[in-house]
Amino acid sequence: MRLFYFWEEMQLAIHVIQFSGRDENIQAVGALAEVPRTRLGLPEFKMVVEDDHVKALDRAGIPYTDITKGPRHKSTTPSLS
Question: Which residues are CB-contacts of 41 (< 8 A; sequence separation ≥ 6)?
């Protein structure tokens, strides 16, 4: 049973985020350089990051949208419905 809880915790540690444009994306790369963990850049100014990356972006004041989808994670993307 403990494995199940561990898996839920791991899912919450990964975020898919998106920046509004090229300038924010470039600023984010600089701010994320201080985090020794791996991140993954995707097209359309998106990244797959961990909690430490999100904290670094928040400290630097760089705006982003968390578009992560999961059973226990609510996306900050506005609904179109």
Answer: 47
